[in-house]
Description:
Organism: Kangsaoukella pontilimi
Oligomer: single chain
Radius of gyration: 26 Å
Largest sheet: none
Structural class: mainly alpha
Keywords: Membrane, Transmembrane, Transmembrane helix
Protein name: 5-bromo-4-chloroindolyl phosphate hydrolysis protein
Low-confidence stretches: 1-18, 264-268
Pfam families: Halogen_Hydrol
Amino acid sequence: xxxxxxxxxxxxxxxxxxxxxxxxxxxxxxxxxxxxxxxxxxxxxxxxxxxxxxxxxxxxxxxxxxxxxxxxxxxxxxxxxxxxxxxxxxxxxxxxxxxxxxxxxxxxxxxxxxxxxxxxxxxxxxxxxxxxxxxxxxxxxxxxxxxxxxxxxxxxxxxxxxxxxxxxxxxxxxxxxxxxxxxxxxxxxxxxxxxxxxxxxxxxxxxxxxxxxxxxxxxxxxxxxxxxxxxxxxxxxxxxxxxxxxxxxxxxxxxxxxxxxxxxxxxxxxxxxxxxxxxxxxxxx
Length: 285
């Protein structure tokens, strides 16, 4: 008789605490403070005004790069198998902060490079200390080779894009309850993603779910959202919610089966190890 295996990805398991987003007040501060340059720019001669406006634009670019870098870092940290961000956005953000502060500190009358250089160096260093470095290397599940990790990363990336498209599409329907329902399904699907990342051998059995099923769910969501936004068809809504129920049940069952298989494999390995120890004359409990 199979033993029910419970874990953090199993249905009914306690929800993990939500991780606080890194893209909060500090990044908003980077966007807000440069507006001082806009207020002072029009009180200066044309050259000084142009320098301040360019500095404002550069600092806004730095804030945007920082925000995107933090989002990429959060996505990287949330996954067990992930490729490093292709562009080190936070590093470029530090460079842009330094350049923006250098322009802001430039005196158009003397054009002395000393103050701008000091502002650039201090600004870049403080930004790097405050926001940290970008992830610089890929990470994968222990015990699996880089080829397996790359296959899993590609499959999960594609699946995450399908979920993002579902969230974006259902937002057009203008029904918060449906958006929450899609979010609930997304969490169920992501539990499968994390299980596959923990054991890349599960990818073969889960590939239909990560690809075909999520692609179909995405297309159905887009069609439903467009229809419901126009007609508010209650029958279509009931059918769509039933589809989400079926998908969630199917994904949960598949994830639980993967966990049971992992438990069975672990039991076999433990039993084999015990037999080997017994042959060596080592007693086990």
